[in-house]
Amino acid sequence: MQSKDIKKDSLKAWILAARPKTLSGAAVPVMIGLALAYKDSFLYEGDPFCWVPAVLCLLFAWVMQIDANFINDFFDFAKGTDDTATRLGPRRACAQGWVSVDKMKHAIALTTCIACLTGLPLVLYGGLEMVLVGILCLLFCFLYTTHLSYIGMGDMLVVLFFGIVPVCVPYYIHLHTCSSFVFLVSVACGMVVDTLLIVNNFRDRDTDKAVGKTTLVVKIGEKASLQLYLALGWGAFIMGLAYMTNGYFLAFVLPLVYLVFHHYTYMRIKRINRGKALNLCLGETARNIFIYGLMVTLGILLS
């Protein structure tokens, strides 16, 4: 059923379909990777920090996030997992009739092409290996919604594509190397971003189970999922000890702010437990991720 206050295929409909609130989550790992590259560029003669690939990395992350959102919207609707009668999460464009199915297909093709055009110039800065990175990003963007999220592999992909890849690749593009320290930082970032998927799947655990979507939350159960949500935030913070041993003291200390918010949101999730009210916790978790990214980035730049 089409919402009365949103005209079909209107600008407002497309903005909602793009899910602008998710763009901050896509930006966080890139911010951290670029901050490390900027600071470390002073240690390598002949490798000054360049703003052109930095902007391209950020734009690529944003376009890929929008592309992933369109793909998720379309395929979940096609599979029937966005049933508006039972859906607890935010409303989706195709399911609500805000965007026609045919136009969503065209939008997916368009954003995929824009992502390719945005990422292609990075070959000039990072080498031909950037082509492989781009192909993998596009491939798993489709595989996540169409298959992998249904067999409990979504969390692994979040750590990979919202942690390891967007932190390590911008760093590599600028300095043509990547240390074990940067890799550790990228994993910690991916763990923080994964809290968003955990709370999303925790809210949908009953409906997901009913339609055969076996997320990690469905596999491990309610109690373990709550513990995992809390542990991801704490684990990322503890891994931040690596910042101290590499001269970034503030990058370890400032995320204490994130940890306070993270623990508060965990207590709220535990208290609410079920229903649409968990959408509030979803929003809080997205905010917490941005706080983490901002605190770490500031900590790196100010250290």
Notable features of this structure?
mainly alpha; globular
Description:
The chain has 303 residues and is mostly helical. Helix content is 75%, strand content 0%. It is built from 16 helices and no strands. The protein is globular and about 60 Å long. It starts with 10 loop residues before the first helix and ends with a helix.
Give me the count of strands.
0
SS-based class: mainly alpha
Largest sheet: none
Please state the average pLDDT score: 92
Element order: H for helix, E for strand: HHHHHHHHHHHHHHHH
Cα-to-Cα separation, first versus last residue: 53 Å
Question: Can you give the helix content as a percent range?
Answer: over 70%
Shape: globular
Task: Supply the number of helical segments.
Answer: 16
Q: Determine Rg (CA atoms, Å).
A: 19 Å
What is the beta-strand fraction? under 5%
Ranges where pLDDT stays below 50 over 5 or more residues in a row are none
Topology diagram in text:
Blueprint: H1 11-18, H2 23-40, H3 51-79, H4 93-96, H5 101-119, H6 123-126, H7 129-146, H8 154-175, H9 180-203, H10 205-210, H11 216-220, H12 222-239, H13 241-245, H14 249-253, H15 256-272, H16 278-302
Helix pairs in contact: 2-3, 2-8, 2-9, 2-16, 3-5, 3-7, 3-8, 7-8, 8-9, 9-12, 9-16, 12-15, 15-16
In short:
This protein has helices at residues 11-18, 23-40, 51-79, 93-96, 101-119, 123-126, 129-146, 154-175, 180-203, 205-210, 216-220, 222-239, 241-245, 249-253, 256-272, 278-302. The chain has 303 residues and is mainly α. Helix 2 (23-40) runs antiparallel to helix 9, helix 3 runs antiparallel to helix 8 (154-175) and helix 7 (129-146) runs antiparallel to helix 8.
